[in-house]
Specification:
Helices cover 33% and strands 22% of the residues. The protein is an alpha+beta fold. The chain has a 7-stranded mixed sheet with strand order 8-11-7-12-9-13-10. It has a 6-stranded mixed sheet with strand order 1-2-3-6-4-5, with helices on one face. The N and C termini lie far apart (56 Å).
Length: 353
């Protein structure tokens, strides 16, 4: 390990060759990679696999338990090692909550350039992840580490849910309202941070949002009227709403002004701050989005990749108020009704409310 006695503070994001982006492959790219890959199975106990774009795999253990399994990892989006660990762990656990499950166990995925990062920095990353898992009530019970050219950290996360209460992204019904539980703009703030343009209040809001565990998902399992749930992450609100539309075979309408925004995001967008991922997202699925007279900054916001973003909940209109109040009472003050599900082709329509 390198000597750090007189070393300058290390910027973790400068070690990420991809700019510290934790974004997913664009949907079209992923579909192309998976084309021709033979389907596994059939396995009678596999309830959710690769056949849809769901958040995690689900395996039925018995009549009362199903195992939810997922993995997520990425390069640094901030320079503070402890915060990086917290964000990466929160992001990984989000997929378990999105399926309605309770996390039970995590394994660490660690790739670090050990010739560039001091041991204390790596320990702080791992400590951040462990702190988030402790908050979620789960141990990091093992994992795997490699010497890599850039820092990578994340988790394999496992959870349990009743087989009859599994939440997926494909069960939305016509007439459902759509609720988003966190404010948008994580990608914009991350880009502003890398450019040295992020104010202290924006950074604090960024950390608060990306480290807030989506524990609400466990309560949504089996709740009357809740038909589908996904978490909004790398594909942005429009991309994950489109997955929901395709899964249900219905149209999803999004009100572009409805989502809450993190502090300073609108100003930064209008000043031209955006991520390359938002542009790739639009190039990938923009053909399935009907949006007339949408300002560029609004489009960039709706395609903005969200690290550890909010849950997108499809719920019967008559139950939407109760779910919204529940979310806000659980600390998700930015929860908003952002759209609805309607009959029609599986596409997105951006319709001002």
């Amino acid at each position: 390990m390198p000597d750090t006695a007189a070393a300058e503070p290390i910027r973790l994001t400068s070690l990420a060759h991809g700019g510290g982006c934790g974004c997913k492959l664009a949907p079209g790219v992923l579909a192309e990679l998976l084309a021709g890959v033979p389907a596994a199975g059939p396995f009678a106990n596999l309830m959710v696999g690769t056949e849809t774009s769901d958040d995690a795999a689900v395996w039925r253990l018995n009549d009362t338990q199903a195992l939810v399994a997922t993995t997520d990892f990425f390069m640094p989006v901030v320079d503070d090692p402890f915060d990086f660990g917290r964000i990466a762990a929160t992001n990984a656990l989000s997929d378990v909550y999105a399926m309605g499950a309770t996390p039970i166990l995590a394994l660490a995925i660690v790739g670090m350039p050990v010739d560039k990062l001091p041991a204390d920095v790596i320990r702080r990353i791992l400590a951040g992840g462990a702190a988030t898992c402790a908050e979620a009530g789960v141990p990091i019970a093992g994992g795997h580490s490699i010497d890599s050219v850039e820092p990578i950290y994340g988790l394999v996360a496992l959870g349990l849910v009743h087989p009859d209460k599994v939440l997926t992204n494909r069960g939305a019904r016509s007439g459902d309202a759509l609720i988003l539980t966190k404010a948008l703009g994580v990608g914009v703030l991350s880009a502003a941070f890398k450019q040295g343009r992020l104010r202290d209040d924006g950074y604090a809001a960024f950390i608060a949002s990306t480290t807030q565990l989506s524990t609400l998902g466990t309560e949504l399992a089996g709740l009357p009227g809740v038909s589908a749930v996904t978490d909004v992450t790398g594909f942005g609100l429009l991309g994950h709403a489109l997955e929901m539309a395709r899964g249900a075979g219905l149209t999803v309408e999004i009100d572009p002004a409805a989502p809450a925004l993190l502090p300073g995001v609108e100003t930064l967008l209008k000043a031209g701050v955006r991520t390359g991922a938002s542009m790739r997202n639009w190039a990938s699925y923009g053909a399935d989005v009907r949006a007339e007279a949408l300002p560029d900054w609004r489009r960039d916001l709706l395609t903005d990749p969200q690290t550890s973003g909010g849950l997108l909940i499809a719920v019967a209109a008559e139950q939407a108020g109760a779910v919204l109040r529940l979310a806000q009472s659980r600390g998700f003050a930015a929860s908003r009704t952002v759209g609805r599900v309607t009959p029609g082709e599986p596409e997105i329509r951006v319709v001002p409310g």
